[in-house]
Every structure is written in structure tokens, then in C-alpha cells.
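Handout, section 4.2: multi-component inputs.
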Amino acid sequence: MEHQQRWRPTVNEREFIERALQSDLRVDGRRPFDFRRLKILFGREDGSAEVQLGDTRVMGYATAQLVQPYKDRPNEGSLAIFTEFSPMADPAFEPGRPGESAIELGRVIDRGLRESRAVDMESLCVVAGKHVWSIRVDLHILDNGGNLIDAANIAALAALSTFRRPECTVGGEDGQQVTIHDPEVRDPLPLTIHHLPIAVTFAYFGEGNIMVIDPTYKEEAVMGGRMTATINSNGDVCAIQKAGGEGVMSSVIMQCLRIASVKAADITSKIKNEVSTYTSAKALQKVKRLPATVPQKDNVPDVAMKESTDGALERQSTKASSDVRQISKEPLSIVKDNKQEDVEPMSTECNPEVKSKPRFTVGEPDETQGAISPKSLKDAVKPKHKRKKKQHNKN
Amino acid sequence: MEYVNPLTGFRVDGRRPNEMRQLKAEVGVVARADGSALFEMGNTRVIAAVYGPREVQNKGQQVNSKEALVRCEYRMADFSTGDRRRKPKGDRRSTEISLVIRQTMEASILTHLMPHSQIDIFVQVLQADGGTRSACINAATLALADAGIPMRDIVTSCSSGYLCSTPLLDLNYIEDSAGGPDVTVGILAKMDKVTLLQMDAKLPMDTFETVMELAIEGCKAIANYIREVLLENTKRLECQRG
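Output:
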């Protein structure tokens, strides 16, 4: 119920902004249907993103936790949006309980993402009725330059699309034991995102005849009404919020939706570009830097490589169990000491072969092993396999 | 689940797709309030009370002293839903609905005529069967009119949805919780302008247009009914004066 004291324009300022809008001019020199410059930055960790939309800055951070699912949806994960309006960003934001605008913002973004089923919830289920992933997105407003909803929505999407959850497997005697794998052991998995619902906010002035997109802080103080349309790039309307204010004709609303769908397509491609640049940069970082003397390294796509050897190793461990036993009999200390040195030769010596022979087939693991430098491969098997064994035992 | 019978075309509660639930309104139900109303849409039942215009209680809340301060509180009674449990005051949903109702009513109240004053609107859901926010807005309009607060136009609201590839008017609880799209529209009836529009779930744009138009038609029908009720009420008051 509390009204927040926000900056109020003087009579002159108000008149100036309104007068200028009548001749299609905005105070920051944009045209009515231009967005401000959008910049998306990613943090060092997966799932964190900072969005700058003109002066507005919002930070999104996605995290996940294994929880018990809701009773009515035993095989679905959950997604929750939390907003934090720090008094740092705007003197109108009060510390403590979230105000009305914080709640509205959270609810609009939440509806856009959840009700339109943008994030696949069923893929977040680990054991039905027992363990599901609960994704939490925290949105922190760092600077309020107007149009927080759009900026926060983009921040949430960027955070979700770079977010990786740790892989986990179900095992144990009763088949209910959940093992969460360390990100170092198994690559964490991205979320399944079906589409990106983009929020586009319109501000209405003067009896609802003038409208602009992406209002700034000053325009927000003057506007008579506001509408946020959440639309994906296919032109599907995912959510709309027009909470009272200046009335507009229904034909104007449809016009707004059409404009919004064009803008949504632009922003979608922008987000996708930024995310793919980030993920590829991140993948490059993961490549083990080897001494310059090794020439083969350059064209080895590290992620794919790791997976293929991993898979192959598992198959080996089941098929050729005798080999495994042999390996595991070797003293632990040696393995630990040699870990670093062991892994390196694997990637240099074995991978060319792995690449040239597309995949180990299940039937002939021993053969291939025999053919390709058996010692090095065996050595390479050791540390990883041991680590896995140990984890299982712990649980 | 089938929400529209493919053979008969009737809905789960026996209505046609573009049929509204029965409306019932009563004005002047709270003795102490300046204006009050009870509004029913089928099994949804809400009560609204208006106090004001009166002196501003908390001066800090006043943003612009040249206009009246409008406040609104939406609350769902603990016994209004199927599972009876204590609902925390000021949860996210009711805070948002309070905000939405307040801003919608602000759009129709001539606030500049009542400087240095405040108007309080209290809406309480007695029975919830879908479309509570629409019913609350309709009740608030009636209560404001009963309190004699100058208004630009009457605001009415109605919801519509889209299930089994059929646009449906005025969703009840079963249809509302089906997970399909839900469009709530509030219009200024005479000016024919949309002031409130809320929607969730995914819907292609052309379908959205038909669903929204359907809701607007519903709002207009409600506006006609509200006008009748107010006229009746005024006639009654006139008789009492003699």
C-alpha cells in the first residue's frame, strides 16, 4: 500500500517532454519506436549476466538446487524469480520488504517465463516425486534509468541461457540414490529453453494517442499509462500487463503488439548472438593449454573429445572389467601424483586416434585399445575412473 | 480434459462459449462505508467498500497534493477457496492485484477535483470461482458510484480464455486453472478504451485479438447491467426522499 516517493518532474519539464513528443521527438534523441542501446555482459560463472539498457542496469543470476517437487506436479522442476530493488539504484526504493513495483516486475517476468513454458520443466526432474531441480533467478536492479521490466527480462533470459546445472545420475541399491557430479568430472548441462519471451514496454501519453517504446526514467515520470507485452520471436503473445492508467483503443493495442513482435525478434537474435559468443569463448577457455612443442592440439575440439573418450571408457569398464580391476589395484598415491601428467599425454597422444577412428565400438574395445598405444590409454583411464569409483563409494 | 463438449458445444458448467455467468449486484451493503457494493459473477462473490474523499491520513503517502490519493486493498477471505487455510497478508499475488485495481480505478476517478484528500477502496473476495479481479473491479466501480465520487466513466472488467480451440467468455475456476491463456480486460465503457489488460500463457497474435474482442464484448454487457443497477438504485433513493 505504500506509495514510493519517486522523482517528479517540474511543470516545465513535464510540458517540455510532452510538447516534444507531440512532434515525435524524445528527450534523449531517439525516435518513438527505438530501443536504447542494449549491452549484455556475462560474469565469470555460468548463469550470471548483466544487462545495460541505456542507463538502466540489471543483473541476473541463476542458481539451481535439488528439492522435493510440489505435490501436484511430481515430475516437474520449478522456476522462481526473485527481485531485489536496492536503494542504491533509486532513492524511491526502500530497503527491506519489496515494494509494489518490485512485486509487479517479478510477477510480470515470472508469468512471461513460466506460463508460456519457455523453460522445459520436465527435463529438470531427477526422481519423480523425490528430487527435482529448482531454478532460482535473482534479479538485482543496479541502476534505474527507466524501463526496468524489459531490462530485467533480458537479464533473466541471458542468465538462464548461459546457466548450466551439474549433471546427476540415479543409482544405488534402491535406484533412488542421486549422485551429483562435480562440474570438473562431467560437463554441466544447459537448460532446455523452447523460446525466448521478450518483454517490450510501451508508454502512453496524452489521452493514449502518443506512444513510445522503452521509456526512460523521465518519460516514466510523465507518462499516463504503460503496457508491457511479452512476445517471442514467432509472434506468440506470452504475457501482457497493462495495469490501469490511460485507456487506449483496442486497435492501438494490436498495433503495439505487432511492433513488439518485430522488436522481440531483434532482441532475441541479439541475446542469442551474445550467448553463443560467450559459450564459445568459455569452451575455448576449457581447452587445456599444452606446451608449444605439441602441434596436434590446435584442431581438437575439446568438449566433444572429452565426451567421446568418457563414453568409451565407461563401455570399457563394463565390458572389459578385468582390465579395470587391474587398473584399480594399482596404488592410489601414484595415481594422485601423476594425475596431471597422466591426463596431458592422453589428450596429446590418444586423441588424434580417437578422432580418426570416429568412435570405439562396443564390441571391440580391447582390440582398439591394443592397437592404439595401450599403455597411455590405460594410464589415462586411471585418474578419472578412480575418481568416479570413489564418489560412488562415498554415497 | 474436455472443456468444451465437441458434440453439443457446451462448457463444463453448461454455458455456451460466449455466455457469461449470471450477474448479481447490490448497492449499499456496508452501513458505515460511504459507498459499498456486492457483486456476483456466478459463484464468484466479492464485496467492495469505499471510504472518502476524506483527509489524507498519512501525509507521507501523498505524491501530488493537487490530486486525490487513491488506495486499494484486495483481500481474499480464508474461506473463499476450496482449501481453507490462512493466507498471509500482503502476498505477492494480492499485492499485485491491489496495484492493478488501484491504477484501474485511478484512471476513471476525476482525482483533480478532490485535492488534499484520499479515497480508500477495500475489496474482499467472499467466494472465489475464477475471475476475482474482474469481479472486484466491477464491485469497486459500483461502490465508487454509490459513494458519489466523480468519475470520468464507469470501468468494467471481464475475462476470457481460449481452450479446446474455442474462445471462452468469463472463465470459472476449473477453466481458469486449466493452464490455458487467460485474458482479463478492463474498459472505460463509454469511451470504449482499454485501461486494464492482463494476459498469460502463449497465444498467437490473431487468436489473441479475437479473445480480447470477446472479453471487450463481455465488459460492455457488464457495463449495461451496472448502469441498470445504478439507475434502479437512484430511483429507489428518489422514492425514499419522497
